[in-house]
Amino acid sequence: MKIYYKDTYTYKLFELLAGQVDNFISTLGEIVSYGLEFLKGFKSYNTSFSEIMTQCSRFGVSSLPITLSIVGMTSIIISMQVAGEMVKQGGGNFVGMLMAILTIREEGAIMSGFAIISMIGSSLASEIATMKVTEQIDAIKVLKVNPVHYLFTPRIIAGTLMMPLVVIIASLFGIIGGALASNIASELSFKAYFDSVWFGLSMRDLNVCILKSLSFGFAISLISCCCGMSAKDGAKGVGLATTKAVVWSFVAIVIIDFIYAAAFFY
Fold this sequence. Notes:
By secondary structure, the protein is mainly alpha-helical. The chain has helices spanning 9-40, 49-62, 64-88, 95-133, 136-142, 147-186, 190-200, 203-229, 234-264.
């Protein structure tokens, strides 16, 4: 019996991996290309203040409830499990310090990033992808307006500026939630908890948290806009672009977080 190599599982697996690698490289190239085009016209393009404020409201106000819920519940879950064991071992005076360091350095920024990606990043990608497949982007080009500058600038500015504010509010909410959970789980007093919050924190932790948040906001908004701009093939393309934006944003903030951790805390 004659066997065609293209029908073998080995060839199909290799073809699948090759396709994924090709898709990864092409998507990365598109993000870099659009990012460079945005930076090139950032100073020369005059975006309206009202449009920036609209996008800031979208990033900072609309996303705040879900962000506070995710960060607060994560802190409560961790604190409930940690506080009881630390009090048993005589380390109750360090529960607040541990939760503060965990929240400021990692949890607040990462969980806020996940919430922003799920709610705002996917919305940005689907919005621009819909404009692309319905030829609204082509109409903008006909009017002699650069769609990258017109669409990307207010969204990236808003995402970069509002992300630190969201992270700070969510982190404070998480620390307070940890205090409530510690008191319920181990009867640790609020005074003991908040007195220890400042033991391990420093301005360096706060500065790194803000800098990391700026990077997260820039990456999420840029990737979401780029994936939306590269959409094609109608409604199916909108779904694929939205999914790609969410996946790539998740990967991006994890990589950025690793870089900051290695640079400042290793």
